[in-house]
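hiii, so i know i said id send this last week but things got crazy w the move. better late than never?? heres the sequnce for the chain we talked about at the cafe, plus the structure i predicted for it. fair warning i was half asleep when i ran it
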Amino acid sequence: MEARSIAARHLPKRLADRWFEQHGFTKSVAAMSDREMKAVTQSLHAWQMRPSGTEGFEKAEVTAGGVDTAELSSQTMEARKQPGLYFIGEVVDVTGQLGGFNFQWAWASGFAASQYV
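okay and structure toks below
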């Protein structure tokens, strides 16, 4: 089985696809040595994403996130299926009226997660 398929069981498929595209791991798990498998897992664990820019406060609007709240602890924002993985802000499927609700949600969920990280 391809490592990308295994990762897609635990991560959103588009995220797994993008990560494997960026890092060039194309072998099946069966074809990987222990050293290569360790390199894949360490690289995935250490991967950091950085926004490339912003359109500013004037363009900020709700985007309706994709992570189901049923998959998260309501107290810590930690993923139930992947301990140590936290989701906050608009990536979580919580929406409200424009006018500050979404900023408040982003700040509040970030604060909640920060108490446990």
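btw The mean pLDDT is 84. thought thatd interest u
miss u guys!!
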